[in-house]
Design brief:
With 89 residues, the chain is α+β, with helices and mostly antiparallel strands. The protein is built from three helices and two strands, in the order βααβα. The chain has a two-stranded parallel sheet.
Length: 89
């Protein structure tokens, strides 16, 4: 199933975005996240059913989780980069 479709048309989609440690350390964090979010645009018609979740890939199983400040920066960046598509909650 893609972010743009659901079998019944009534499902909410959670899209997970995140970067690897190498991407984060190389300074390509924003490019990586922008690329992941841009891939959604042609496929989603109803943004009210989309939730974007963020976690760095390196956090999976390592305990190196994103700080609340990092997550807040991502939210601000997403809203700024894609005006009119997201509602901040």
């Amino acid at each position: 199933m893609t972010a743009g479709s659901s079998p019944t048309g009534h499902l909410q989609v959670i899209v997970c975005v995140g970067e690897t440690l190498d991407q984060h350390n190389s300074g390509s964090l924003w490019y990586t996240l922008d690329s992941q979010m841009q891939a959604l645009f042609p496929n989603v018609q109803e943004w009210s059913r989309v939730v974007i979740a963020y976690e760095t890939v390196c956090a999976i199983g390592t305990g190196q989780v994103a700080t609340p400040q990092q997550a807040q920066l991502l939210q601000q960046h997403a809203c700024h980069s894609c005006p009119g598509r997201f509602v901040s909650q």
